[in-house]
Amino acid sequence: MNTEEAARILVVDDEKDTTDLLTYKLESAGFLPCVTNIPQKAMSLVREFRPDLILLDVMMPELNGLQICHTLKADRELRNIPVILLTARGEPEDRIKGLETGVDDYVPKPFDTRELILRIRAVLKRAKDAKKSNNRQIEFGKLIADKDLHQVSVDGEIIMLTLTEFKLLQLLMENPSQVLSRETLLSRVWNYESDTETRTVDTHVRRLREKLGSCSGMIETVRGVGYRMIEIPEGEK
Question: Does the reported pTM lie above 0.70?
Answer without folding.
Answer: no
